[in-house]
Amino acid sequence: MSDLEAPLRPKRKKIWVDYFVNFRWIIVIFLVLPISFTLYFLTYLGDLRSEWKSFKTRQKEHDENVKKVVKRLKQRNPSKDGLVCTARKPWIAVGMRNVDYKRARHFEVDLSAFRNVLEIDQERMIARCEPLVNMGQISRVTVPLNLALAVVAELDDLTVGGLINGYGIEGSSHKYGLFSDTVVAYEIVLADGTLVRATRDNEYSDLFHAIPWSQGTLGLLVSAEIKLIPIKEYMKLTYEPVVGNLKELAQGYIDSFAPRDGDQDNDDKVPDFVETMIYNPTEAVCMTGRYASKEEAKLKGNKINSVGWWFKPWFYQHAQTALKKGKFVEYIPTREYYHRHTRCLYWEGKLILPFADQFWFRYLFGWLMPPKVSLLKATQGEAIRNYYHEMHVIQDMLVPLYKVGDALEWVHREMEVYPIWLCPHKLFKLPVKTMIYPEPGFELQRRQGDTQTAQMYTDVGVYYAPGPVLRGEVFDGAGAVRELENWLIENHGFQPQYAVSELTEKNFWRMFDAGLYEQCRKKYGAVGTFMSLYYKSKKGRKTEKEVQEAEQAHLETAYAEVDQPVD
Q1: What terms describe the molecular function in GO for this protein (predicted)?
Q2: What is the mean pLDDT of residues 436-442?
């Protein structure tokens, strides 16, 4: 067997859950989609109502809501009330984790009112947003002004708070970094109820650098000031097919945006947007985009494709046509391009509704798409949830750019998941060591895509049912995730915490650096009030003993030995 051949696996005996999953589309069609559409519409009306309010009114409401949060925190009795978390129901989160920490004793703080765009400051080029503002909402406000967040995550439902406290990326991240790298200031309520504004150069600069990836375990985020950039009305998108083995596909992807002469910061050589989709072990399509004016888009001979219409082919399938017809260029309205993966949830929609990509369904019912991820989770039950953890993969692997080929070969060998999404991002060298950080000495290697201030990484997005599952073979989902995590640790990679994790506490702190995070936990009183990051992220229900131990806040040294072997 060659290195790229997947191992032979025995056939798996079907159980009742398999049949339920196969016919789950009935519940989705008749229950989830109608409710989702209603919720989307009501949310839209609420967003419009917020936009009609004056800045002064929104700011006044914000200040009043912050006072409520402070008052609620001060009502907590540390000896009996449990650790602090938000009042959102466990199934509302977009991520795939079970949010098991909310099934144990805890103290809830309601942040549901924090969903307003507080200000668009065109002089400072800053958008000030509350944490529950989502990407669809903010792009609807900014794009008509020919402005946008520097990094606009593709799915409409992703929120500012989730993208900061967790993880956020887009096709522009090769220029601007992750979503959190574009934040100018955070407004945080600390454990004792103190409201602070943290920036990269004020007295709370340590907190500013520790907030990303902290999952709300340092304080409660109540607003953020985020960088805006000027944009144009259209995205000129070039689709270029690449054929070869996985290493050759990886190199084609790298060459699509990273000049071989190392001139990575030259806007003339580097596109505004980048993504690549690997459709199988020998075929991929690289997409590069540049902003274009409406005058350019409407020139004779140019093709405009409004991908946002409900009846249009799903974006990943449309891009796949480049494998047959070759390289082509088209112009997409900018906001529609930003949210190109929303209707089909990348390609997860194909598993949820196997026929939803067909023309008849798109034309008749495509306007109902997508189903809300939160409702899909709310209607799946414990058995279905556990089934998906074992038989389905939703993972992002953040790896150094030069290791993308190795990562693709690993995924093929161990999981056989296709399509695979590739999206590059800068990982900046900062004055302090944050939870995720570039490889030491990367700037001396002068690798393709790197600069003196940032190492180029790539999100290898692995979302779908593995090949063995589709073939009815035995597949150990938990074991595969453990191996994925070990591979990431060995290759200086990182796993976003929205995903299901099998990491032990020791290996968790080998993947992430605990130094600054633990320092801020102690300095700002989070220990014993907010959950620790590992406690919040780890798989499985929390016992009462675990809750009590977390409340007692034994300040143990975090596992941060980078040179220890993987268990």
Answers
A1: Delta24-sterol reductase activity; FAD binding
A2: 95
